[in-house]
User: Fold this.
Amino acid sequence: MSTSATKAVPRTRNRFVARLFVAPQFLASYTRRLAAVQLLQGKQAIVTIIFRGTFFVVSLLLILLSFSFFVAGNAYVANRIFLCLGAVLYLVCIKILIHRAHIMSAAWMLIALYVGLASLILLMWSINAPIGILVLGFIIVLAGVMLGARYIIPVTIVVIGLLSFLQLASRLGIVHPDYSSLAIASGFGDVVSYSTIFAVFALISWLSGRQMEQSLQKALVAEAALQSEKDLLAVRLEEQTRYLRESQLEEMRQLYRFAELGQQSTALLHELANHLTVLTLDIDDIQQRNHRTKAISHARESITHLDNMVGQVRHQLQETSASNVFNILTAVDEVVTNLSTMAAKVQVSLHYKKPTGQKAILGNGDALRLSQILTIIITNAIEAYGEAPTSFAEPTVFIATHITQTTVEIMITDDGQGIPDNIRQQLFTPFQSSKKNGMGIGLFIAKSMIETHFKGTISLDPSREYTRFIITLPRYSSKGR
Assistant:
């Protein structure tokens, strides 16, 4: 995975998480806007139809009054004609408000028109006039349909107050209604008037019911659309989750390879320092011309070992992990032989107790990694005697192997300075060292390699009389392979 690809994963994750938080908010906001738009459209449709019906009735009444005045010669209808003309101009203003989408203002003006009409009728023929009472009832229904349910009670209170005021004015003699119409027998004109009012009531009821049905239908459609969007969002969520999981796994694999390479590089530096020390000592022997042949042999072995380690790191860079069957006893013997010269230079002897009657104990893994692990632990054991090993009776590092049917135990023991109790509890954690100039990563690397590569364990013997590390490795088995 490239660096840009690695950076792209968090950016993609952040964008996706942002979508997850924005999507529900967007859907909720969309639903609210949709409901508001539907409500406004419903009110606009009702107000428009009532306006048209009112305009038609007023226009028809104006035509009839004009015919009565100009053709029949009834002069008493002149005032009524002027009232109708004023009502027409009033309705034109309402039309302008509807056109400019001022629906609530238009609705209030329509209600005010009918309140004025009812008041005029009741003033002229008292509050017992049936048409006036029907118009007031119509106003209450009209307020609930055009303005909303919350306006029904206030408008009803206003209507009751209007009736009370008109009755009080009549009692006090402020107004003088014409009661003679109550004694007149009914006629077909009354039927037409009442039928017109009932038709208007039916129209309002029909509009209200149709609007409710349309709103319900739109709500069902919106719910279906939202459910479809929710299902689509769930599919996208699943796809994005799967993509993020794959990206995270790839990122974790890449980070693990980097961590493993870092461990290998650190182990390489640690072991290179040890072998370069041995090589330096051998070169000193060559310069002093003492044990020349043996020193050159040790120098070649050190160079070969360093070359093998470089090859191992090259394999790591190529993402190939060598895992072969190898002889554990041979690997231990080679490490002891390579470190014997370094140990002798600091007056420490290595004592390797080989298992009796065993020439080969097979293990599964990389022999060079085991060599690195043993080099780290044995070098620590040698350095445990300090700069003056002669202060100890017999400065010796003991290496022994114990074999069972399924495992091989490699024990490295020294009688050096020991490990303090405060270090023992965190011995295998990084940057914890009992040495003055130690980096504190050798045992951490050794433990990581043993557990991850060899599937084994490493532990410290609890005894305070000596320091003993016990490495347990599983033996190679062709059946369990």
Q: What stands out?
A: Residues 422 and 434 are 10 Å apart (CA to CA). The chain has two domains: 3-178+186-237, 322-481. Residues 322-481 form a domain with the Heat Shock Protein 90 fold (CATH 3.30.565.10).
